[in-house]
Amino acid sequence: MMDMWRDWQRMMRAGTMWGETMTSSHAVVGHRSKTIERALNDPFAADFAELGRMVSEKSNAFGAAGASLARDYFSMQADLSAQAAAMGKLLMGQLPTSRATQAMLTRNQRLASAALASSIRALTPVHKAATENARRLGRTKHRQAGAAIAGGDRPLRNGRRARRSA
User: In the chain, at which end, N or C, are there fewer CB atoms within 10 A of the end residue's CB?
Assistant: First the structure.
């Protein structure tokens, strides 16, 4: 039986996670683009720790998402196969019995609910990486701005920090 309230909550959670992921990704890409620009302008002063995280974090998050989707797909495979067989009979002109129709509807509901849960499980590692990076890089940005003001440094110009004149 389909639990519409639970599925509604899952849909809202998936939408919220998607929006947070996109917003966080925008902030992270903006910050990291500046990190790459500074590294290109002055390779000796590059933030190699941050540059190194860029690929590994993505591959870890998307690898976990892919593994989650694969597990869920294999768990749904029996229902998908049964549904394909029932639809094949229907397309060949064989009308289903009331029991077969009920079984098809039950499988459809189960597949829809499983697909929704699967999408949330797949989005979770990507969401977690993006939102954690946005928080971490946001704190770094504020810390760097505070240090620049406290130290009397001039802001970056063309990717290089201006030297204080005596």
Answer: C
DSSP per-residue codes, 126-142:
HHHHHHHHHHHHHHHHH
**Mean pLDDT, rounded, of the chain:** 85
Q: What is the pLDDT of residues 109-139, one digit of tens each?
A: 999 999 999 999 999 999 999 999 999 998 7
The pair of structure tokens assigned to 111 is: 């597949």
What does the domain layout of the chain look like in residue ranges?
A: 15-154
pLDDT for 150: 46
Nearest to 105 by CA among 76, 82, 75: 82
Q: Tell me the pLDDT tens digit for each residue of 65-82.
A: 999 999 999 989 999 999
